[in-house]
Design a protein that fits this description.
By secondary structure, the chain is an alpha/beta fold. It folds into two domains: 240 residues, Metallo-beta-lactamase, Chain A, CATH 3.60.15.10; 142 residues, Flavodoxin domain (Rossmann fold, 3-Layer(aba) Sandwich), CATH 3.40.50. Helix content is 35%, strand content 23%. The strands form six sheets. It has a seven-stranded mixed sheet with strand order 1-2-7-8-9-10-11, with helices on one face. Strands 17, 18, 19, 22, 23 and 24 form a six-stranded parallel sheet that branches. Strands 12-13-14-15-16 form a five-stranded mixed sheet, covered by helices on one side. Helix 8 packs across helix 12. 50% of the residues are buried. The mean pLDDT is 97. The structure holds MU-OXO-diiron.
Length: 404
């Protein structure tokens, strides 16, 4: 039997009409272990309005869900809150099928959609704070630049007090359920943090600005409808608190130890460093890079106080898996970390120097010179690694005495 794709009512006159992507595991380099959703919403006001579209291959799913509520040709307006292709990929096909009276986007969205689809879409740019009359309700637009792209804006429907927040407050989590209070808390908390770490971490300043704009607006938010994952109807105050904490670079006495190894020497060093960290009262998270994904490393770094990175030297370079993570983390710009480099070598041993330079580029304060070992670590080398871990633990205890 063919699956029946229907809309889900989320508030009076508001329906979820998005798509569920159970299969995706690589979202531009981010491991989406639990899949994702591309959320779109239909407002059944006098002026029928579609908020956002979905990724290109999910066009039919979007149209089927809309059709379960209304003939899609009855849609008057389309609002594009964010032009990244997971939300606008099928916008030209939707516009061709619906023939809306108008498509709205921010001023930057007008530009971005033009640069994606060239002459294919007729878009009206709206101003920050502009109100769109839907006849029996009103939709307000608020620019939220760089949350996640320059074009990003959010839309607020006054009657049922619903915020359509595009990427903000979202997560990559495919589920049959649509609301936060229908899902288990732990995987949801993990995916919320993973999304923030991998998508929003470098954008702390614009996020603080956007949060201040929303919380200072005087508006009530009964329902928060992001473009990915569950709709918040019960836990939003906690989510807001977490966003404020992450945008403020909240750190704890946790140290992330990432490494790869050729002949187990760098692994032994990582274990000795872990021993020093644990003995000193720090929480140690050890992540061997042959089995840890860069996006999971970023998630652990989100609230960590320290980052220790180890690599053997291979052909005068650091190990490729380590280079991958350092490049990725540098782009995410975690602020306020302390750390150190370590590694083993057989011939020339450039890896620790390269790692130290990479940590400098990330503005990680290095608490000690790199620990560098030739071939196999001796008992003294292992003690030096333990001492490095202990030094980091002491620094974390001084910086965050109440945040074990
Ligand atoms: Fe979900 Fe920035 O797109």
């Amino acid at each position: 039997m063919t699956q029946k794709l229907t809309a889900v009512k989320v508030a009076d006159g508001v329906y979820w009409v998005g798509a569920i992507d159970w299969e995706i595991r690589n979202f531009h380099g981010y491991l989406t272990s639990r899949g994702t959703t591309y959320n779109a919403f239909l407002i059944m006001a006098e002026k029928v309005t579609l908020i956002d579209a979905v990724k290109g291959p999910f066009f039919e799913e979007l149209m089927a869900r809309i059709s379960s509520v209304i003939d899609p040709s009855k849609i008057d307006y389309i609002v594009s809150n964010h032009s990244e292709m997971d939300h606008s990929g099928c916008l030209p096909e939707v516009a061709a099928a619906v023939r809306p009276e108008k498509i709205f986007a921010s001023q930057q969205g007008l530009k971005a959609l033009g640069e994606h689809f060239h002459e294919g879409l007729d878009v009206v740019g709206v101003q920050d704070g502009q109100v769109l009359d839907l006849g029996n309700d009103k939709l307000s637009f608020f620019e939220t630049r760089m949350c996640h792209w320059p074009d990003s804006m959010v839309s607020y429907l006054h009657g049922p007090e619903v915020l359509f927040s595009q990427d903000a407050f979202g997560m990559h989590l495919a589920s049959a359920e649509r609301f936060d209070d229908e899902l288990d808390d732990r995987p949801m908390a993990r995916e919320l943090a993973k999304y923030y770490a991998n998508i929003l971490m470098p954008l702390a300043a614009p996020i603080k600005k956007a949060l201040a704009k929303l919380t200072g607006s005087g508006l009530a938010f009964k329902l928060i409808c992001p473009d990915h994952g569950p709709i918040w109807r019960s836990h939003f105050p906690r989510v807001l608190e977490l966003y404020q904490r992450w945008a403020g670079s909240f750190r704890t006495r946790k140290a992330v130890v990432v490494y790869d190894t050729m002949w187990q020497s760098t692994r032994k060093m990582a274990e000795a460093i872990r021993d020093g960290l644990s003995s000193g009262g720090a929480k140690a998270v050890v992540m061997p890079l042959d089995s840890s994904h860069r996006s999971d490393v970023a998630t652990e770094v989100l609230e960590a106080g320290a980052l220790l990175v180890g690599s053997p030297t291979i052909n005068n370079q650091m190990f490729p898996t380590v280079a991958d993570v350092m490049c990725y983390l540098q782009g995410l710009r975690p602020a306020g970390l302390i750390g150190a480099a370590f590694g083993s070598y057989g011939w020339s041993g450039e890896s620790t120097k390269l790692l130290s330079a990479a940590l400098d580029a990330m503005k990680v304060e290095q608490v000690a010179e790199p620990v560098r070992v030739k071939y196999i670590p001796t008992a003294e080398d292992m003690e030096a690694c333990r001492e490095l871990g202990a030094t980091v633990a002491r620094r974390l205890a001084q910086a965050y005495p109440d945040r074990a």
